[in-house]
Amino acid sequence: MLNAKIPAGPLEKRWEEYKGHVKLVNPANKRSLEVIIIGTGLAGASAAASLGELGYKVKAFCFQDSARRAHSIAAQGGINAAKNYQNDGDSVYRLFYDTVKGGDYRSRESNVHRLAEVSANIIDQCVAQGVPFAREYGGLLSNRSFGGTQVQRTFYAAGQTGQQLLLGAYSALERQVALGNVTLYTRHEMLDIVKIDGKARGIIARDLITGKLERHFGHAVLLASGGYGNVFFLSTNAMGSNVTAAWKATKKGAFFGNPCYTQIHPTCIPVSGEHQSKLTLMSESLRNDGRIWVPKKKDDNRKPADIPEEERDYYLERRYPAFGNLVPRDVASRAAKERCDAGYGVGSSKQAVYLDYAAAIVRYGKIEAGKRGEHNASPELIDKLGKEVVAEKYGNLFDMYAKITGENPYEVPMRIYPAVHYTMGGLWVDYELMTTVPGLYALGEANFSDHGANRLGASALMQGLADGYFVIPYTIGNYLADEIRTKAIPTDHPAFAEAEKQVQDTIDRFMNIKGTKSVDHFHKKLGKIMWDKCGMARNEKGLKEAIEEIIALRAEFWKDVRIPGSANEFNPELEKAGRVADFLELGELMCRDALNRRESCGGHFREESQTEEGEALRNDQEFDYVAAWEYKADGSYELHKEQLVFEECKPTQRSYK
Amino acid sequence: MKWSQFFNTSIGKKLLVGITGLFLCSFIIVHLAGNVQLLYNDGGKGFNTYAAFMGHNSLIQFIAWGLKIVILLHAIVAIQLTFSNRKARPVKYAVSPGNQTSSWYSRQMAIMGSILFIFIVVHLSDFWWKFHYQSLPTVSYEATGEPIKDLYTVVQFAFKESWLVVLYVIGMIALSFHLIHGFKSAFQTFGLNHVKYNGLINFVGVWLFGILIPLGFAIIPVVIFFK
Amino acid sequence: MEHYNMGLTLKVWRQKNKDDQGRFETYQVKDISSEMSFLEMFDVLNENLINEGKEPIAFDHDCREGICGMCSMHINGRAHGPWAGTTTCQLHMRAFKDGDTVTVEPWRAAAFPVVKDLTVDRGAFDRIIEAGGYISVNTGNAVDANAIPIAKDKADAAFAAAACIGCGACVAACKNSSAMLFVSAKVSQLAQLPQGEPERATRALNMVAQMDKEGFGSCTNTGACEAECPKEISLTNIARLNREFIRAGFTYEK
């Protein structure tokens, strides 16, 4: 059994107690303690800035050309916080409860409660940094509701919340760079962890411009390298998002938690053809006002406008009257897949459902007309006013849809389909966010901790910033306080040399294959296996097949991949090859984890475990644990379990009906 | 930031160009008002009296010298900026956007300015230099008493030369485009961009400084030429 | 929307590294779907090049949804191609027709040296932000988020400026390679918020000084940056930067 080092005492007092008794490092000692941070997204940038402010010597790494480009930037909808500004009954407890329930009782209560506690501080911090959240006319912050909750606790900046939050963290980070507390290494990719005497003591990084390998020492190493959704090739992640940092850590002894928990987001723009390189998310906030439907008739090829109201099946409203179109993501995604698989899908591929704004336009148009005293407004005026309101709220999303599809979503219902979006699984961490390797931490999406088997909308930004701004600055002190006597270890230490040699060998191996197929060829094949057999619905037979197929594909990859150019120059194909090689190993582990978990929970749906109505059916007796996998050898993993204890939220069958 | 540093920044330099530019704008209004007298049918009396007054009033002489310094300052700073702007793009694009993203005259301020500068040199050496430093025929009017230089006749004579008229027209076309962009650009450089006033600034820039004034200046040599 | 396939002639800038001279290479691509994005068309081209044993074209890209600011191509003379308010990754092949010749160049600016092919180094932007593009507030120093109300129009204007993605299209589009739109977007965002007030003067002074130091040109108000900005950042921000800078220059004591 794994020990998560959860503080004793009542749930709501634990973080307070912890902070009160955690070891501190005095300012003079902080100056000689070095911390390496991988990734500059919300978690990484906020951690780098906060630790720099505290006086630690921080080195931050990102593979992009600037820290500002990390994929947190693409988050659209918003960030949750238990501020209760709307006076609608929100509280820390409710946010905590919603998150545990939304995660289908597979997350750690203590972590989630802490997350809910610090959520309010995040909003304060961001506003102080100049993050321009949406405001009401009175000058106070605006909120909206988001899938899976019944209160309005989501703060947002149009459809660009992630961008604004990241730029806030990025500017705080750049401020520390200017002050000399943080050194930034852009276009650098971490390729291995260096362990000395069992502790994480540094990394090997490749300068992506020159191809040179570099050794960097740190008293502690923080991985804030994001999620691994790109294992599916097609996902809403950025092209460069990868698992490499987390995977190298896994191979150096960090356990990987719940790898099979992936979130399929219900509102994405459907695949248009073989050329597709990534999928684009349409913010979940669209479900606040849009209605989702398919025709009641199978293979109905009429235009949406020609299908009369009574021949439309608003299947979410029908199946889940209490939450309607606002059910959590996993539920909405599966419902869309169910309809399409049953033959009711729309569009040329039949793999899409409609997201319709016609009703919202009329509703808003009437309200707006009312405000202007136009009580007998013509339908044209209502339509015009309604479209203006919708444009104000969702304009950038509608524009994006129009650019990608060439269709006007104000006139024609949008076509949407679920796509891989977020990975709840990640490196296993204890209460202090430390992995099973001492001195190695994981933050944000890279860890497994707070979202259980399903993440609620607007919670990822909250978690990333909570980890970076408000958790790690405390918990890292508890470790580093014991490291003040450790002098910086010179990088000519044998452990560094050994790690660098291994990385170099792998690169040489890549370059010497000189095969016939591109990296993308293999990535696409892997993605197809994963999507078909370890995607929205999984079963034993499929998963077993997938494991065999992935092993075969991996062997073929190492025999036949072609990487042009050389290793000592800017070589994007070589970068991709390294990432895909890691995905080819992770994919197998995901399937093994999914196979092991013979229950349905959150984003993990095992066809063998469902209710008569087709809803996910958990098995709390057997599976209320975190599956943490220890890497033994290639293709060989040992399962460790962390028993989940639910003191406050008693697991029940989730119901959104 | 010290003044020397401030006026060495790109915005500081732009500010100098803008201030000097608007000063020159105010000058050309006065200049045109005076020169319109060349078209009066009074045998040059009004114009010559005006020229004599301008040439002898010491305050105006002081301003006139200031004007020349301002022109030089405007040109020198603008040339500095132009060179550093060129340096900012050492390799040019093979395909340029043409007028899709900006108006051609907004991009050609340096060319227009250079044409104007040549024009101003010719203009000054033709009239101002002659008026001040060469002996010209004189005329006497009752009002002034003493004989004054007959610049009017010099002008009438000069504009019988077709190449000079063409040069003046070209100079005024350059002035037009230089000011259509330059006038409103100066306000933008000062930070004065406001929806309530942009319309007015644009209107004055285009109609007064871009069309009316250059047209007024250009008409004079043309009319004299054809008289 | 009718879909169609097309063949194109591509003239692409190839440059091995920053020291290489660089030159155009011409490529043909066939069966390009009008539904592809411009970068997906490049994926096809690169896949072809790899299969032919040649080196693929290096180009920056990441999120492919128009927000990370990484993609950066100058397409037929236009930063991010012919569509207004669009990044290269969001440009779709519907913008072209069968038989078109498309010339693709990197951003051209002394301050953005070419790294390889179509990839440039935009580190200058980070250094400008380091010079003052932030509010100095350490974690934990903040008061309650609703303690200071901010008028909605101010907040909206600050947001509109903050929408800048730092892609560098403004520099690429400007005949002077000026970074004024980028700098003004950040200065403007923070100048309009009460939280930005304490550092208002130094921010404008330092960021402009750094901008000049990086070797960007000056602003001649042609408006090309605004026309090409994928986030449609307004020229009013440049006016505000000028105002902030002049105000600071005339009044700030140090």
From TrEMBL, chain A:
<dbReference type="InterPro" id="IPR036188">
    <property type="entry name" value="FAD/NAD-bd_sf"/>
</dbReference>
<keyword id="KW-0560">Oxidoreductase</keyword>
<dbReference type="GO" id="GO:0009055">
    <property type="term" value="F:electron transfer activity"/>
</dbReference>
<dbReference type="Pfam" id="PF02910">
    <property type="entry name" value="Succ_DH_flav_C"/>
</dbReference>
<dbReference type="InterPro" id="IPR027477">
    <property type="entry name" value="Succ_DH/fumarate_Rdtase_cat_sf"/>
</dbReference>
<dbReference type="InterPro" id="IPR003953">
    <property type="entry name" value="FAD-dep_OxRdtase_2_FAD-bd"/>
</dbReference>
<keyword id="KW-0249">Electron transport</keyword>
<keyword id="KW-0285">Flavoprotein</keyword>
<dbReference type="GO" id="GO:0009061">
    <property type="term" value="P:anaerobic respiration"/>
</dbReference>
<keyword id="KW-0813">Transport</keyword>
<keyword id="KW-0274">FAD</keyword>
<keyword id="KW-0472">Membrane</keyword>
<dbReference type="InterPro" id="IPR015939">
    <property type="entry name" value="Fum_Rdtase/Succ_DH_flav-like_C"/>
</dbReference>
<keyword id="KW-1003">Cell membrane</keyword>
<dbReference type="InterPro" id="IPR011280">
    <property type="entry name" value="Succ_DH/Fum_Rdt_flav_su"/>
</dbReference>
UniProtKB/TrEMBL annotation, chain B:
<keyword id="KW-1133">Transmembrane helix</keyword>
<dbReference type="GO" id="GO:0016020">
    <property type="term" value="C:membrane"/>
</dbReference>
<feature type="transmembrane region" description="Helical">
    <location>
        <begin position="15"/>
        <end position="40"/>
    </location>
</feature>
<feature type="transmembrane region" description="Helical">
    <location>
        <begin position="60"/>
        <end position="83"/>
    </location>
</feature>
<keyword id="KW-0472">Membrane</keyword>
<dbReference type="InterPro" id="IPR034804">
    <property type="entry name" value="SQR/QFR_C/D"/>
</dbReference>
<feature type="transmembrane region" description="Helical">
    <location>
        <begin position="200"/>
        <end position="226"/>
    </location>
</feature>
<protein>
    <submittedName>
        <fullName>Succinate dehydrogenase cytochrome b subunit</fullName>
    </submittedName>
</protein>
<dbReference type="InterPro" id="IPR011138">
    <property type="entry name" value="Cytochrome_b-558"/>
</dbReference>
<keyword id="KW-0812">Transmembrane</keyword>
<feature type="transmembrane region" description="Helical">
    <location>
        <begin position="162"/>
        <end position="180"/>
    </location>
</feature>
<feature type="transmembrane region" description="Helical">
    <location>
        <begin position="109"/>
        <end position="129"/>
    </location>
</feature>
UniProtKB/TrEMBL annotation, chain C:
<dbReference type="GO" id="GO:0051537">
    <property type="term" value="F:2 iron, 2 sulfur cluster binding"/>
</dbReference>
<comment type="similarity">
    <text>Belongs to the succinate dehydrogenase/fumarate reductase iron-sulfur protein family.</text>
</comment>
<dbReference type="InterPro" id="IPR017896">
    <property type="entry name" value="4Fe4S_Fe-S-bd"/>
</dbReference>
<dbReference type="InterPro" id="IPR050573">
    <property type="entry name" value="SDH/FRD_Iron-Sulfur"/>
</dbReference>
<dbReference type="GO" id="GO:0009055">
    <property type="term" value="F:electron transfer activity"/>
</dbReference>
<dbReference type="Pfam" id="PF13085">
    <property type="entry name" value="Fer2_3"/>
</dbReference>
<dbReference type="InterPro" id="IPR004489">
    <property type="entry name" value="Succ_DH/fum_Rdtase_Fe-S"/>
</dbReference>
<dbReference type="GO" id="GO:0006099">
    <property type="term" value="P:tricarboxylic acid cycle"/>
</dbReference>
<keyword id="KW-0479">Metal-binding</keyword>
<keyword id="KW-0408">Iron</keyword>
<dbReference type="Pfam" id="PF13183">
    <property type="entry name" value="Fer4_8"/>
</dbReference>
<feature type="domain" description="4Fe-4S ferredoxin-type">
    <location>
        <begin position="155"/>
        <end position="185"/>
    </location>
</feature>
<dbReference type="InterPro" id="IPR025192">
    <property type="entry name" value="Succ_DH/fum_Rdtase_N"/>
</dbReference>
<keyword id="KW-0004">4Fe-4S</keyword>
<dbReference type="InterPro" id="IPR006058">
    <property type="entry name" value="2Fe2S_fd_BS"/>
</dbReference>
